[in-house]
Design a protein that fits this description.
Structural class: alpha/beta
Shape: globular
Number of strands: 12
CATH superfamily: Ribokinase
Radius of gyration: 20 Å
Order of helices and strands: EEEHEHEEEHEHEEHHEE
Strand order of the largest sheet: 5-4-1-8-9-10-11-12
Number of domains: 1
Length: about 250
């Protein structure tokens, strides 16, 4: 970043789904005699912060200070997640651990530098009422430090319409801008946010559009959504076709 980095010193509160991205690296020299699949000789394993935590890392790389508010499990993967956060210099006081909710782990099997398979360990049910109340309290504890709030939704159950509505209300009462990276399940739940940023695929799924290609009709539907939900700004990424900003 240059001398005029607008992100330097900014405190960013990120709430949503987190995960551990695991990678098993190895080499392939033969096909299994048991099934027509490659045999991977594992030579190394690594774990990285994923989901909303990866967004936090990106925020940190821009010299801003991220604060995570989320739910993970009381399990080995959860301890790995906390360890990675601490190693990255990120505070963990906004992170809730629950025995009945395993930490999401996505394990990628890499053979000869190519991804051969991905194994997902996750629970996507909506968090219960008690956990939602604690998440709101953790959020409120961190909110006085924040200049902006990012909702990172991966449809894993941490965010749901009830908690979304409450957290947005707290931000609006304090004049703190809110941004959203939405997914399909809660697409229509972010009423009154400052910036709503889907890509075309997310927009198409959220609005149940039939068109796979970018169309004027789809963008008009997005503008209608913006007006109906009181969204201040709409920013749609359109891959090689650029962006739509309203």
């Amino acid at each position: 970043m240059g001398l005029n980095n607008p992100f330097a010193g900014l405190n960013v509160l990120i709430v949503g789904d987190v995960m551990v991205d695991a990678y098993w690296h190895g080499s392939v020299h033969r096909i299994s005699p048991e099934a027509p699949v490659p045999v991977v000789d594992i030579s190394g394993k690594e774990s990285r912060l994923g989901g909303a935590a990866n967004v936090a890392l990106n925020i940190r790389s821009m010299q801003a200070s991220p604060f995570l508010c989320t739910v993970i499990g009381e399990d080995e993967a959860g301890e790995t997640f906390l360890k990675l956060c601490k190693e990255s210099g990120m505070p963990v006081d906004g992170i809730i651990q629950r025995k009945n909710r395993p930490t999401t782990v996505k394990t990628r099997i890499m053979g000869n530098h190519q991804q051969l398979m991905r194994l997902d360990e996750e629970q996507t049910q909506t968090i219960d009422a008690e956990t939602s109340m604690e998440l709101e309290q953790r959020f409120l504890n961190l909110l006085p430090k924040a200049q902006v709030v990012i909702f990172e939704d991966y449809d894993k159950g941490v965010l749901h319409p009830g908690i979304i509505n409450q957290l947005i209300r707290h931000c609006r009462e304090r004049g703190i801008p809110t941004t959203v990276d939405p997914k399909k399940v809660n697409f229509n739940a972010f009423h009154g946010v400052s910036l709503f940023k889907p890509n075309w695929k997310e927009l198409r799924e959220g609005l149940h559009l039939n068109q796979s290609e970018v169309t004027l009709e789809g963008l008009k539907r997005a503008e209608q959504l913006r007006r109906e939900q009181g969204i201040e700004r709409l920013f749609i990424t359109l891959s090689e076709k650029g962006v739509f900003f309203r």
